[in-house]
């Protein structure tokens, strides 16, 4: 009975199995059922074939969280509302949110615009008495 790994011959299948278990241990990678000779080979496979940090916007995978975050910054810019904590994928969505959610208040005497009625009224009493 011959060892498939090193071609050494044995008198019984049990002797061959014992030899393989002791001389040629394997390391499994359960994510894809691959088997490797060494932990280092398994880890290299994991690094090469199974990046684990995924972009939430497009699904692209990266090997490090820093690479994923840089990708997100470069590829998927965000647009923040200056009035609240909401973030949008496009400037158009942010602008529509601003119009819908944060109305402006215009001074009828000078066309100045304010974010609150209180600010507009204070302006009117200060500037247009």
Could you explain the architecture of this structure?
- It is a single chain.
- The protein is of the alpha+beta class.
- It has two domains: 23-76, Double Stranded RNA Binding Domain; 79-129, 2-Layer Sandwich (Double Stranded RNA Binding Domain).
- The protein is built from five helices and eight strands, in the order αββαββαββαββα.
- It has helices at 13-23, 39-49, 65-75, 91-101, 117-127; strands spanning 27-29, 34-36, 53-54, 61-62, 79-80, 87-88, 105-106, 113-114.
- The strands form four sheets. The chain has a two-stranded antiparallel ribbon. It has a two-stranded antiparallel ribbon with strand order 3-4. The chain has a two-stranded antiparallel sheet with strand order 5-6.
Please give a handful of descriptors for the protein shown.
rod-shaped, 2 domains, two-stranded antiparallel ribbon, 14% strand, alpha+beta, 129 residues, 43% helix, single chain, Double Stranded RNA Binding Domain
What can be said about this structure in brief?
The chain has 129 residues and is α+β, with helices and mostly antiparallel strands. Helices cover 43% and strands 14% of the residues. It folds into two domains: 23-76, Double Stranded RNA Binding Domain, CATH 3.30.160; 79-129, Double Stranded RNA Binding Domain.
Q: How is this fold's topology laid out?
A:
Layout: H1 13-23, E1 27-29, E2 34-36, H2 39-49, E3 53-54, E4 61-62, H3 65-75, E5 79-80, E6 87-88, H4 91-101, E7 105-106, E8 113-114, H5 117-127
Antiparallel strand pairs: 1-2, 3-4, 5-6, 7-8
Order of helices and strands: HEEHEEHEEHEEH
Helix content: 40-55%
Count of DSSP E strands?
8
Q: With helices defined by DSSP (H or I, 4 residues minimum), what is the helix count?
A: 5
Which overall shape is indicated by the principal axes computed on the Cα atoms? rod-shaped
CATH topology of the largest domain: Double Stranded RNA Binding Domain
CATH class category name of the largest domain: Alpha Beta
Structural class: alpha+beta
Rg measurement, Å: 33 Å
Major β-sheet strand ordering: 1-2
- As for the number of domains, it is 2
Write down the overall mean pLDDT.
88
CATH architecture of the largest domain: 2-Layer Sandwich
Q: Tell me about the largest β-sheet.
A: 2 strands, antiparallel
User: Could you give the distance between the termini?
Assistant: 106 Å
Low-confidence stretches: none
Strand content: 5-15%
GO molecular function: DNA-binding transcription factor activity, RNA polymerase II-specific; RNA polymerase II transcription regulatory region sequence-specific DNA binding; zinc ion binding
Organism: Coniophora puteana (strain RWD-64-598)
Domain C2H2-type: 1-24, 53-76
Pfam families: zf-C2H2
């Amino acid at each position: 009975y011959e060892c498939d790994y090193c071609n050494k011959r044995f008198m019984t299948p049990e002797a061959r199995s014992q030899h393989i278990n002791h001389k040629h241990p394997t390391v499994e990678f359960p994510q894809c059922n691959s088997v490797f000779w060494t932990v280092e080979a398994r880890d290299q496979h994991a690094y090469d074939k199974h990046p684990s940090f995924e972009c939430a916007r497009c699904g692209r995978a990266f090997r490090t969280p820093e690479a994923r975050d840089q990708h997100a910054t470069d590829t998927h810019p965000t647009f923040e509302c200056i009035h609240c904590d909401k973030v949008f994928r496009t400037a158009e969505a942010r602008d529509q949110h601003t119009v819908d959610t944060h109305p402006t208040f215009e001074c009828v005497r000078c066309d100045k615009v304010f974010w609150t009625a209180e600010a507009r009224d204070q302006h009117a009493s200060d500037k247009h008495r």
